[in-house]
Amino acid sequence: MSGSTKAMGVLTVATLVVVTAYTVALGSNGWLWFGWVVLGLVTLGVVASRGT
User: Fold this and answer.
1) How many Å apart are CA 39 and CA 4, to the nearest integer?
2) Least enclosed by CB within 10 Å: which of 8, 13, 19, 49?
3) What does the pLDDT profile of the chain (52 residues) look like in tens digits?
């Protein structure tokens, strides 16, 4: 894995932590979860494309 791929993975996990904390503190926000899912899918796509 390259440095940018690792950074994207770290960003995805950090975003998950932030969205979870927001949900616990202020209630669920569907757009935040949707954004996190999109970010996760993009990250998986980048990992898959770099793996080949």
Assistant:
1) 14
2) 49
3) 678 889 999 999 999 999 999 999 999 889 999 999 999 999 999 989 886 6
